[in-house]
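Example record

One chain of 307 residues, shown exactly as stored in the release files.
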Amino acid sequence: MNIWKSAKLLIVNNGGRMMSGSLKRRMIAAGFLSVIFLCDYSVGWGYEEAAVTSGGTVLGRVSLKGTPPPSRIFHMVFSPNIDFCTRISDGKGNRLLKEFHASGDGGFQDVVVAVVGVEKGKPFNYTPEIRLENCRIGPFVTPVRNHHPFSIVNKDSVVHDIQGYTIEDSYTFEMFNKPMLPESTASKEIVLRKNHYIFRTQCGVHDFMQSWGMAVGNPYFAVTGPDGNFSIPDLPPGTYDVVAWHPHMKVKSQRITVSANGKAELNFEFDSAEAKIPLHDLQTNYRLETALDLLHLSPPTIELQLP
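Predicted structure tokens for this chain:
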């Protein structure tokens, strides 16, 4: 069952009775995102900026257990600008979209780690930005803010068509469609539908250009790097719930107490066997290699992608 639906059923079925610790954690990880991350939905309260004294730090590591799922394969014969976009390819006219990045010791990259329920704290000076370069959207994961600007920078010499979507359960809603001229910059406002927490972008011209985001309602978040580590500083002392999210995994949560000027360590582990990937994205064969042989494509000049 979808995690958001599970949370709604838990809230209804519990009927105000005392909940176990595990049940509380499940609700926080799933249903409470709608209340805490998107608290500026005209519900009468939101995040307040204030000076933080004796703030603490939440730090730790996110790891991926098992072998990462394979990269997705896109045949570039279906898209324009083949000569330009094949500067990153497998050398055979295919583009690989690698959505799971893990280091040799399991460090899991591109995971959003966010502290929920922070009502007051440091300034929230964050404007998300994606860059279009070499027919790739980066970063792959970008947290977003509701009712806030979202910057798009096209560094390529070709046209891209950036489509922004919000997702809730199996329903996808197109928020905007922004054609991007070569070497141009644009700004769009993030306006999430009620109960939508996940944001996705893709290029309508080059389907292998995709990225993801999760809505955040305060500045206490981080995105893991290549080693899987994260650090969230200047957090007012207190007890909080912390969630970890990757676009193809179920969200995880833990509760932690941060003391004044202290450091609280927190680690998350995801299992690659639990990755939720649509069946149509699991293609592992290269169907059009013979057709692309006729194009005499030049070898990649930026990056040779490996399976």
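Notes: The chain has one domain: 32-295.
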